């Protein structure tokens, strides 16, 4: 009996986790506040859907979905924002606006990590995607180092890219579906210029790219070479969340190498074909994959903190004594 009692004490009676409606009691207007701000900005700039998808992905793939990407660098140390892959991440001003409104209504209650997740959901829905349910209850991280940023690049093979996703507990299907977020994205010419004229140092263009697309991209990238112009990754419905991206890469119209590789590699080509032929199926799988992405290595319960300002860790008196960015 004594042994049973000891074992019972070792079993947590309550396991902290994410849940739908986490703020229903503590801040019932939280999700409506996020939606209101996102909707206002979307009305003037539909590209924020791509911006939030990228921010969410870049945040979750480093130290988990903990809003570490939002921290500003200090004189002593560079934060994740300063890492090369994050220099073109944007939308931070919208997060700040949401946080200011939430702090006015519910001080120290809603995490910055949850704001990113909710804003991404709302931006996806505004762009024609599903308005899926989002689990909340994330806490904000206490570490943000530029050196920790290691993200899959645009020139990887399918197998190379999948190693990054597998390390985060995601499947190949998840990867192909999440890359479908490129349906509303853009890429700077520097990320694909070699495919236009000197693919992998060969001195010739990438033969897997449709000639008409190549001609269009040569014109785009050559117009202002010093400014590193951008091109839409989905040439047809550039601001809509739909499955056109998959149809285009099946026609050799993938802008980034990894996009085109998805349609050519035997391990992923079947998944691409299925998504290209089922628009509604893609919508559902994309929403499910985003929910799964948002659960990567989250901090819950008493871990981390709830930041007052998403760009900076709380003052030592407001948080734990854990080591923070200098």
UniProtKB/TrEMBL annotation:
* GO molecular function term, any single one: lactoperoxidase activity
Is Hydrolase there in the keyword field?
A: no
One Gene Ontology cellular component: extracellular region
Instruction: Locate the site labelled Transition state stabilizer.
Output: 54
Disulfide-bonded cysteines: 27-106, 60-65, 112-310, 189-221
Localization annotation? Secreted
Instruction: Give the main localization category.
Output: secreted
N-terminal signal peptide: 1-16
User: What Gene Ontology terms for biological process does this UniProt record contain?
Assistant: hydrogen peroxide catabolic process; response to oxidative stress
What is the reaction catalyzed? 2 a phenolic donor + H2O2 = 2 a phenolic radical donor + 2 H2O
The record lists the organism as Dioscorea cayennensis subsp. rotundata
Active site positions, chain numbering: 58 (proton acceptor)
Summary of the function given for this chain in its UniProt record: Removal of H(2)O(2), oxidation of toxic reductants, biosynthesis and degradation of lignin, suberization, auxin catabolism, response to environmental stresses such as wounding, pathogen attack and oxidative stress. These functions might be dependent on each isozyme/isoform in each plant tissue.
Looking at the record, the residues that make up the Plant heme peroxidase family profile domain are 17-314
Instruction: Identify this protein by name.
Output: Peroxidase
**Cofactor(s) required, per the database record:** Ca(2+); heme b
Q: Which residues bind substrate?
A: 152
Instruction: Report the EC code(s) recorded for this entry.
Output: 1.11.1.7
* Family, per entry: Belongs to the peroxidase family. Ascorbate peroxidase subfamily.
Task: Identify the residues that bind Ca(2+) 2.
Answer: 183, 234, 237, 242
- State where Ca(2+) 1 binds: 59, 62, 64, 66, 68, 80
- Which amino acids does the record list as binding heme b? 182
Keyword set for this entry? Calcium, Disulfide bond, Heme, Hydrogen peroxide, Iron, Metal-binding, Oxidoreductase, Peroxidase, Secreted, Signal
Annotated cofactor note: Binds 2 calcium ions per subunit. Binds 1 heme b (iron(II)-protoporphyrin IX) group per subunit.
- The UniProt record lists the keyword ATP-binding: no
């Amino acid at each position: 009996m004594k042994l049973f009692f000891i074992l019972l004490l070792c079993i947590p009676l309550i396991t902290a986790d994410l849940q739908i409606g986490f703020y229903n009691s503590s801040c019932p207007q939280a999700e409506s506040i996020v939606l209101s701000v996102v909707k206002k900005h979307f009305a003037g700039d539909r590209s924020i859907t791509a911006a939030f998808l990228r921010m969410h992905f870049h945040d979750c793939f480093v130290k988990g979905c903990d809003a570490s990407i939002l921290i500003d660098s200090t004189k002593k140390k560079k934060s994740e924002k300063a890492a090369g892959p994050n220099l073109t991440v944007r939308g931070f001003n919208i997060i700040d606006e949401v946080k200011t409104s939430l702090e006015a209504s519910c001080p120290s209650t809603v995490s910055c990590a949850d704001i990113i997740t909710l804003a991404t959901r709302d931006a996806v829905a505004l762009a024609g995607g599903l308005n899926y349910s989002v689990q909340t209850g994330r806490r904000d991280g206490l570490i943000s180092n530029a050196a920790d940023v290691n993200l899959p690049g645009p020139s990887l093979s399918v197998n190379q890219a999948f190693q990054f996703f597998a390390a985060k507990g995601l499947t190949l299907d998840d990867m192909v579906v999440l890359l479908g977020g490129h349906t509303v994205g853009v890429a700077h010419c520097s990320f694909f210029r070699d495919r236009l004229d000197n693919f992998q140092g060969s001195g010739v263009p990438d033969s897997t790219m449709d000639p008409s697309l190549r001609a269009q991209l040569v014109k785009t990238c050559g117009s202002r070479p010093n400014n590193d112009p951008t091109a839409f990754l989905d040439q047809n419905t550039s601001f809509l969340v739909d499955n056109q991206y998959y149809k285009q890469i099946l026609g050799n119209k993938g802008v980034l190498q990894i996009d085109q590789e998805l349609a050519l590699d035997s391990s992923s080509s079947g998944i691409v074909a299925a998504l290209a032929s089922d628009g509604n199926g893609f919508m559902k799988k994309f929403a499910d994959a985003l929910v799964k992405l948002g659960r990567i290595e989250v901090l819950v319960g008493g871990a981390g903190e709830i930041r007052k300002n998403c760009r900076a860790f709380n003052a030592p008196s407001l948080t734990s004594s854990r080591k923070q960015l200098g």
